[in-house]
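Entry: proline--tRNA ligase
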Amino acid sequence: DGRTRCSNFWAPTGGIAVAEEGEDNSTAMLKRAGFVRQSHSGVFHLMPLGLKVQEKLERLIDNAMQSIGASKLSLSSISSEGLWEKSGRLAKYPELLRIKDRKDSRFILSPTHEEEITELVSPLVKSYKDLPLRLYQISRKYRDELRPRQGLLRAKEFLMKDLYTFDTTPENALQTYLETKAAYERFFDSLGLGYVVAEADSGAMGGTLSHEYQFISPIGEDTVVRCTKCDFIANEEVLPSDLSDGIRSATATEEPRCPKCSKGSLRSERAIEVGHTFHLGTRYSEPLNVTVADLYDQQVPLQMGCHGIGISRIIAAATSLLSTDKGLRWPFSLAPFKVVVMDTHGTEDDAMAVYDALSKPHPDLDDPGVLKDGEIILDDRDKSLGWKLKDADLIGYPIAIILGKKWKETGCVDI
């Protein structure tokens, strides 16, 4: 009949009481609430509820990328070892998942696509007139984790948005970086979750400037430090060794001073990295010999940037930040459904009427039709109201509308 109903939406909830050995509680809760299932070590299936959360994240990311003029594409997950040898990264990336075909050709399942996108752009961009160019994708990435842990936070297969930017001059590339950083901040603002932007080390990715987008969480694998007086925030990895040792040392007599203002002291917190922006410069264009003609008709190497958002990581991180012992607590921006309407015996027809009324645009609302496009679900299952309420808590709908005893007596719903 066109209505989204729990009776025909597959959400196998329950059945998992506690976390398995080596598993964090947030992953156990995602499994128990019917969002994911683990297939192998470090490999997960996304269930219908989990897919709806993922699709919401993708739409928010699409909006952010389109705001800076980025075009969406889809690169193959397979790259060649030869290309990675050419860039100098093959020996520096021990977690590559490697495969061979029947001809013994050597390939990798890409954890990231700097080499491939540079090779793709090389014959197609010849002049400064073709730039700036901003290309992004949302795709599965692969990493041969020695010890997968914490569910989606450290998995062998994960979903990521990666943006690659190309400019003629260092000045233009830096401007692109700042515009991308601003778009990232708008995206993370839209999630309704607290985050920090930290100065970061570029690591194996290369380049000279990078920032991480972190959720503060005790289960995080990163350590960020903040100044008590100014706006300085950084990953501990970028600090001089004497400062980072002082922060970690339990015997330090005083906290290290801030390297930016020299007035405040540095405090450390655990955090989950969910995004990273890198200003690469010519890190990949020079070894792969990719140049364009500049304004003076001189061949110059492309100036590049790469910028990632861990989509599956955000799902896991949001769960760890917001879940309770009763279930998940999704913000409106990520909830698989914003509203669930629950009927009880004798109110089935009325519940459908409420569902229909909420699904249609309303002239008195500033945002008419806010519950269109799959934002509302009808729990019409032949279960007790108590069971439905517990299941709704587990899944984490922001709003539950109940047609129970009060409806029968006074025509009022419980919210």
